[in-house]
Amino acid sequence: MGNNTVKSRSEIRDVVAQGIQDTKIIDVHTHLFPPSFGELCLYGIDELLTYHYLISEAFLWLDIPYESFWKMSKREQADLIWETLFLQNSPVSEAAQGILTILDELNVPVSKNLDDVRRAFDQRDVDEYISRVMHVSNVEEIVMTNDPFDPAERQYWEKGEMGDDRFRSALRLDPLVNDWDHTVALVREMGYEVDERVDRRTVKSLQQFLKDWIEKIHPLYVALSLPHTFTFPERGSSTRILEECLIPICEQYELPMALMVGTKRQVNPDLKLAGDMAGRADMAALENLCRQYPHQKFLVTMLSRENQYELITLSRKFRNLMIFGCWWFLNTPYLVEEITRMRFQLLGNRFIPQHSDCRVFEQLIYKWKHTKHILENLLMEHYEQLLKKGWPVEVSDIRNDIEKLLRGNVLHFINS
Ligand code: FIX
Ligand code: ZN
C-alpha cells in the first residue's frame, strides 16, 4: 500500500481533522451582504443578540407586549435578550450557544456584563473585520440572497457592481411564484407591463424582468422559498410563471434553481421576521418538477424534519436534484447529525451538507464550527469502518471527500 495510506484510528482522526480545518468553504445560502451594501451588512454583538432566532426564544420568557419590544432601540433589545437568555437563564439553545462560540473564537474575554462584551466588539475597519471573520470561519465564498423586490437592496444594485468577488449573488423571487396577485403592482412599478392574468404579454414582460436582473446581478442560481402547501402543477399563476417564465429563463442562462420548501410564514405576525414556522410539504411537487425538467438543475432544501427522509429518497432518483443544508430550525447539532448520517448512508458524499443562512457576519463562525464538528465525527466513523474492512484508505481519498462536501459539490453541480 502506498505511503499515502492511513493505517490507524489516530491517523484517520488527524487526517480528517486537518482536512476539515484546511478546506475552504463555499456557503451556498446566506442573507449576508458585503460592506459596500452599507446598513445591510450586519455585524457586532447587538445585531447578533437580536437575531430573530433569539428574539422568538426570548419572548417565550417575556410578558411585555410585542409592540413595546419593537419600539426599543437595537441596544435595548439586545440588553433584554442578554438578560433573559444569558443571565436569568443559562444559554442552552443552539442560537444562544452560538453567541458563546463566537466570543470564544474571536477571543472576546468572557464576561456576563454585556457592556464589557460590547467594548471588545467596538468597531475597527469593517472590511478588515469581515475578512477576519471569514478567515476564522474558513468561509471563502458567500452566496447572498438578493431580493429585487426590496427597495433597500435595489438601490445598491442600481448604483452598480458590488465589487467584492468573495460574495456571489442569488436571485430570490418568492413573490413572483407565491403571491403574484400582490406582486403584479410591484413589477408594474418597476416598468414592466404585467397583468394579474399571466397572459402572453405578462409572460414576455416577466421574462424581460428576469433577464434584466440576471444581467444586473449575475446570480449563481435563482432561488425560491415555497410554502409547505406548494403544489406543482396547479391551475393558477404559480405554475404558469414557473413553466412559462422562470424555468425557460433558467434554461436559457443555464442557471440552477434553488427550491427551499416547507415554510409556514407569519404564524405569529407580532414576531415579524421571527414569526415563521415549518410545515410538512407534499413531495409530489418536487418529484413532478424533477421529472418534467430533467435538464433543469434543482438545489433543494426542506424545512420539515419529516420531509428529510423523503427528500433523500427522491434525490436518489433524480441526478438533477442536489440536496443542500440543514435549513433553519434543522440547524441544531442533534438534527444535523441525524440528517447528515441519513444522507451519508443513502447518498454517499453526493450532497451539500450545510449552508449557514447567516444574517449577521459573525454567525459564520459558530454555524460552520458546529457543523464541521459533526461532519468530522461522522467521517471518522466512516473511514474507521473502511479500515476495519481492509479497504486501503488514502489521505488523498479523505481530502477529496471533504473537498466535495465543503465546496466541490456546490461548484460541480452549479457549473457543470
Ligand atoms: O427563506 C429563507 O431564506 C429563510 O432562511 C429565512 O426566511 C429565515 O428567516 C432564516 O433566516 C432562517 O435561517
Ligand atoms: Zn435563508
Describe the structure.
With 416 residues, the chain is of the alpha/beta class. The protein has one domain: Metal-dependent hydrolases (TIM Barrel, Alpha-Beta Barrel), CATH 3.20.20. Helices cover 53% and strands 9% of the residues. It has helices at 9-22, 45-49, 52-59, 66-71, 74-87, 94-105, 114-121, 126-137, 151-159, 174-178, 180-189, 200-217, 237-252, 284-292, 305-315, 333-347, 363-388, 395-415; strands at residues 25-27, 139-143, 167-168, 170-172, 221-227, 257-264, 277-278, 298-302, 321-323. The strands form two sheets. Strands 4, 5, 6, 7, 8 and 9 form a six-stranded mixed sheet that branches. Strands 1-2-3 form a three-stranded parallel sheet. Strand 2, helix 9 (151-159) and strand 3 form a beta-alpha-beta unit. Helix 1 packs antiparallel against helix 17. The model has no long low-confidence stretch (mean pLDDT 97). The structure holds D-fructuronic acid and zinc ion. Residues 31, 145, 225, 260, 273, 328, 357, 359 line the site of D-fructuronic acid. The site of D-fructuronic acid has 8 residues, from loops. GO terms for molecular function: isomerase activity. This is Glucuronate isomerase. InterPro entries: Metal_Hydrolase.
